[in-house]
Amino acid sequence: MREALFIKQNTQRWKDYEKQQASDPDELAESFISITDDLAYAKTFYPKSNTTKYLNGLAAGFHQSIYKNRKEKTNRFITFWKYELPLIFYKHRRQLLYSFLFFVVFSLMGWLSAKYDSTFLRAILGNDYVNMTNENIAKGDPFGVYKQGDSSLMFLMIASNNIKVELLTFVMGIFLSIGTIYELMFNGIMMGSFQYYFFSKGLGLQSVLVIWLHGTLELSSIIIAGGAGLILGNSILFPKTFTRMVSLKNAAKDGLKIGIGLIPIFITAAFIESFLTRRTEMPIWLSGSILLSSLAFIIWYVIVYPAYLNRKLTPKNLNLDEPTY
């Protein structure tokens, strides 16, 4: 879009924002996000123009209005979860999709490898784990591993390990996305072979109801963390109109925000695994409800709501669908 047309289509809205800023926190946040979107567009296509300078000043004014009073922390917290993080998901939806596809492909590789190579399963899961699970199956308690140890201690260990895996998956993206793809491969192959093992024992449905009780949130978060890693790596490979350093800084900010946003989800998954998954006698309707609720939340918050929010906040005459990186 030519700059003159861009200005013509949006001048009145900018003037309205400039004359009277909304007092309602939600309206103020929506206006701020709209202006920053316009600013990002202008920086991309008209980086040295007066329009960009004007929008930068207007955005700065909104920023001061949002953070000038004692409600700063509360407003910032709400804005992050209600607007900022979902819009980051939408902005980088392609990287999230690529991460999902990588994970699915690697999971299928793990499944097929375990099916056609009898030694593969033990190489991936370890002899001790396979032997222990075989013993549990013989005892009639195939998922007894989840009942071992104290629930509270198990919760702390699982939560800290999952967050560590998430951060590693994200940070490894600095190696031109290859590190992140490796982490997705490792986790995907392990998941595929692990799931095949139970299906081969005739425990497919039961394993889904038990393992995916916590695995829905846990593995979805790893995939999203993989998307954050791809954002980081792609910012170096494909900086577009930015310098590589600026592109990397912008990607690191977005990726870190995704990482922070995933922490409560990992904690919830760890809680479910530690306190609920061990209840293997749980009624099917209850375990199924928890599983489907977790899946519905991920689909809504990462896919549906961000798309809705983008349509609501983006002016119809602008095409800002293209991700920055």
From TrEMBL:
It comes from the Bacteria. The keyword Membrane applies. The chain crosses the membrane at residues 96-114, 163-182, 194-213, 219-238, 258-276, 282-308. Keywords: Membrane, Transmembrane, Transmembrane helix. This is Uncharacterized membrane protein SpoIIM, required for sporulation. It comes from Mucilaginibacter mallensis.
